[in-house]
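It would be a great kindness if you could assist me with a short task in structural biology. The full record is reproduced below for your convenience:
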Amino acid sequence: MININGLEIEVPIIQGGMAIRCSMSKLASAVANEGGIGVIAGSALPLEELREEIRKARKMITNKKGALGVNIMFAVSSFAEAVKTCIEEKVDVIICGAGFSRDVFSMVKGTGIKLFPIVSSLKLAKISEKLGADAIIVEGGNAGGHLGTELDSWDIMEEITKNVSLPVFGAGGVITPEDGARMLSLGTVGVQMGTRFVATNECDVDESFKKMYVDTQKGDVIKIMSSVGLPANAIKSKCSEKILEDTIERPKTCSGCLKHCKRNFCVSQRLISGHSGDLENGLFFAGRDVWKIKEILSVHQIFENFKGIFNK
């Protein structure tokens, strides 16, 4: 059990917020019911859909020792509006990454909601501490999706945990309990896992996407440049290789979901296609160590596997 400014968490595991429509109310509530922090990915979701998912998750959460969070990328156009929706719905935690917002600290202040920025450097960790973050998630370049550093989590973690007084959750490369124990040994209070929770019964992606995770071999994850303007880790596929070759089809329409977009391809639509199992057109974000996943498990089984590392 840990206490973060009054928020008690039975098991210090955060489930990564994976957009778009990958981590939704079903997965988030399952994680919260195991005593962790279950996270809905709010990035680029219509605000009413985000509101509905938060309410659905709340109805499914029965364990008061878990928590419900929402992850919102600073890069999305609706960032401020999504934060306001989360405040109105009284989520437990707001997590924000893919850029850094100073304004969100004043927006959340006084609401009782905990704020966990995702950072990849000591500089941003110290700024987060100064601005009033409740905890930080430190993420390395071995994580899935959009990245803030070239360095692996193992290479940046200790410098940050030794130089801030905030609770630190480590993200990037945590697939097995052994990985989790290694992260704790670097001074973190807990871990954030995204990739491992995709290959679960409760995740809302198509079964072919989950099977891709199980079938992926070491070296099958490549780094692409997302239209967001950030590098990202993705499984080798027809789509990711076309992005690397710059032969990807340009979007014919644009919803304006990002503040800044290179518009060489629509990352939102490609992720949605991937999550729906479109092997031809889909983009499949994953952490570099996805190859360690050998089977699809329930959220309960994952928590049972990891609980022992927190009791040592």
In short: The chain has twelve helices and 13 strands. Residues 2-203+294-310 form a domain with the TIM Barrel fold (CATH 3.20.20.70). The two ends are 13 Å apart (CA to CA).
